[in-house]
Amino acid sequence: MKGRAGIAMMALVVLFCLLTPMLTGDDPHLPDLGSALLPPGPEHWLGTDQLGRDLLTRTAVAGRTSLLVAFAIVAVTTALGTIAGAVAGLVGGVLDRLLRFAATVALALPGLTLALALAGVLRPGFLTVLIALVPLGWVNCGLVARTATRQVVSADHVLAVRAIGASPYYLLRRTIGPHIAGPVLTVATADLARTLVAVTSLSFLGIGLPPPDTDWGGMVSEAIPLLVAAPRLAIVPALALTVTALGVAFMADARHEVSGSDLHHG
């Protein structure tokens, strides 16, 4: 049930982000000071912001940016963590101890504070957000991949493939990889929700994309001076973020239940 609800919520969010700018026809970046802070109406369903830009269109475009940045970061951290964890789990010994030590150190560090420290010395932009979140973002996938690999590596079919001289690359790609893909994907889905919130938090603090581009965090940050006069400028992107993060969390929870059931039956 949660999985279906999460998929439905994410489908609606993606469709909203993709189709809204085409349906409204408004430029999300072009100011129109003569239309500043218009209330919701037939022409602008959610009204306009302080620069006269359509709030509905700008929320959709900002959501597109937020999702793309979060997906890109999770793709990088999942790839790094899975490769590092699988290799360490297969080889064992020093590599395994190094991975666990690195993961322990990374988990002990305050993630958002470190991200702010890294981003504070760099210019705002996508690359800065990537550099700020990737160094600690690989840990969850890395530990899960390492644990799953250690469980699979002693299975009879893996021992049989190793006995005939299969290379580590072959083992990781064809034998171990399919067995650890489920748990890793579950963790990656959960990481997507956390990464989306982290990206939004950095943007809220002024470390996201420079104007006129923005994401949901940047929109909330821009709306703070008008929080009393026009609270919808902050409520709309915050609500969009909440719905998206909740949808991803539902999907991750459903995948966790499926993975746990598969492991139990296996």
UniProtKB/TrEMBL annotation:
<comment type="similarity">
    <text>Belongs to the binding-protein-dependent transport system permease family.</text>
</comment>
<keyword id="KW-0812">Transmembrane</keyword>
<keyword id="KW-0813">Transport</keyword>
<feature type="transmembrane region" description="Helical">
    <location>
        <begin position="98"/>
        <end position="119"/>
    </location>
</feature>
<dbReference type="GO" id="GO:0055085">
    <property type="term" value="P:transmembrane transport"/>
</dbReference>
<feature type="domain" description="ABC transmembrane type-1">
    <location>
        <begin position="63"/>
        <end position="252"/>
    </location>
</feature>
<dbReference type="InterPro" id="IPR035906">
    <property type="entry name" value="MetI-like_sf"/>
</dbReference>
<dbReference type="Pfam" id="PF00528">
    <property type="entry name" value="BPD_transp_1"/>
</dbReference>
<feature type="transmembrane region" description="Helical">
    <location>
        <begin position="67"/>
        <end position="91"/>
    </location>
</feature>
<protein>
    <submittedName>
        <fullName>ABC transporter permease</fullName>
    </submittedName>
</protein>
<dbReference type="GO" id="GO:0005886">
    <property type="term" value="C:plasma membrane"/>
</dbReference>
<dbReference type="InterPro" id="IPR050366">
    <property type="entry name" value="BP-dependent_transpt_permease"/>
</dbReference>
<keyword id="KW-1133">Transmembrane helix</keyword>
<keyword id="KW-0472">Membrane</keyword>
<feature type="transmembrane region" description="Helical">
    <location>
        <begin position="229"/>
        <end position="252"/>
    </location>
</feature>
<feature type="transmembrane region" description="Helical">
    <location>
        <begin position="125"/>
        <end position="145"/>
    </location>
</feature>
<dbReference type="InterPro" id="IPR000515">
    <property type="entry name" value="MetI-like"/>
</dbReference>
<keyword id="KW-1003">Cell membrane</keyword>
